[in-house]
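To illustrate this point, what follows is a protein record of this kind.

___
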Amino acid sequence: MNKKSKNPYYHIAYWIFVILVLTFVFGFSWGNNMAAFFFVCMLLPIVLGTSYFFNYFLVPKYYLTKKYGKFALYTFSTAIVSVYFEMMVLVFSYVYLVNLSFQKLSPNAIQIILLAVILYLLVFIGSFLLMIHQILENRQVIQQLLDEKEKMKKSFLEIMSNRKIAKIPYDDIVYIESLSDYIKVITIKDQIISKEKISNLASRLPDIFLRIHRSFIINTDRIKNISSDEVMVDDVILTIGRSYRKVVKEILKNNRSN
């Protein structure tokens, strides 16, 4: 069965951690956590922009495609621009904080080299964590592909029906309907009933099958027509559940593009 997941909390947690760490570092150095927090908040957009530009544009477009010359050139240019913006933030925050009668900033806060080191240390830490995250995601994808391959070794669905094992070829299945604790498998020839929950059955089916409703799983190879809330398989029209519509639309769109 098709699965898709995204987790934006990874990024949110990382940048909250960055804010806390930088606030602690500068706050401890200056003896003023409030001034450090304001400074970090003004510096954060530059760190965010540099990190995402480097990790999601420069690395995939130039480094991973082995265009090392352009990668080095654009990385150096990005560093210059980032440092320039850091200097602007530093000057603005220095004047702003002093005007608000905060304690004078410690000398290490006005060392642009230190700020550049901190900026790119965060960028490379983010790159390292991103790489680990992508490795874990790739392992999950590989495992899903292996599981799918294992499912496809059998070209039929095995279920118990009338105290016997029924082997139903995947190609013959039109759709599967849930009847509480039972399922009804509708094929091109007949209907087969088995005492099994549809949620348990879903995990055993290959990707050509898609759950469109709490009560229906369809064979996507037999789709004749589809609208925003209905799908026709062979000559049967089935309703797409409201909570399934977005996922169904995305999966069918990806299947057609492939």
